[in-house]
Design goal:
There is one protein chain. This protein is 33% helix and 14% strand. The chain is α/β, with parallel strands linked by helices. The chain has a 5-stranded mixed sheet. A 5-stranded parallel sheet has the order 10-9-11-8-12. Strand 1 and strand 2 form a beta hairpin.
Amino acid sequence: MWSVQREPLSYLVSIDSFNFLIDCGWNDHFDPTLLQPLFKVASTIDAVLVSHPDTLHLGSLPYAMKQLGLNAPVYATEPVYRLGLLTMYEQFLSRKQISEFDLLTLDDIDSAFQVMTRLTYSQNHHLTGKGEGIVIAPPCGWASFGRHLNGIVLASFVRPAVLITDAYNALNNQPYRRGEKENEFGETIKKTLAAGGNILLPVDTAGRVLELILTLEQYWSDKSLNYPIFFLTYVASSTIDYVKSFLEWVSDSIAKSFEQNHENPFLLKHVGFCISKSELDNAPDGPKVVLASMASLEVGFSHDIFVEWATDAKNLVLFTERGQICSAL
């Protein structure tokens, strides 16, 4: 058992007398006491900006709007809106499987997302009233998508005064070793599978998991591997269906490849979708890779698979991000 918690990500930024709430996060523990700082300022917020579609960045938005007095316009890009909604559905469905989860309802989630203003790529959105003179300009859709996004073009901004990215890794100073890390990641997976072991990748619902899926797809093609890969969440197929339509947010190389080959990178050849544990259980026997929610192992499919597979030393659990691990058992 372990009990490390990552604090929810929410920041108060004031420009003159205009108060922005940057993100409205929670973590997989869903402890209301963690939201006390937000409760103290919720009624003073003039606008909310949501940067990522994961629980750490938007998980408390429905609760804050229903219980904490947050009543302000909410802005997000189209991908963050779509994938964030799926993230919250996944959280709700996962928790309802194990307890009478009463902090949120599906109606609460829908209500919070229905009032979002969805911004398109590089759109300059001019605020009015108290926010007169402030322009919101989203440079990219989901920063967690890593190398599959274009870089930020500062010249596209209208007189930028504040550039807001994310403080998730503000205190995490690690050397840049992308190629080395990816090679180590792939070789570790291949070695475990060759020895007859299964691999569990606890993942978020619709954030960095998308980059992991593309990375595995490429590695499987490069190495001509035939081991099955499964993406297991309640909303797995819906997540990929949404992402197929978001090519304007990804890198030029992916977009050009689509234009030339008419092949969407998310028409996956090696990754299959499961929306229930029974579907995974009915898969053929043998070594496999499973990307399953939740990333923290707090609840959800990853928790159930971890408990089931942990007794076999051949199996491997790979955590692909520095995370909010709450209580695995």
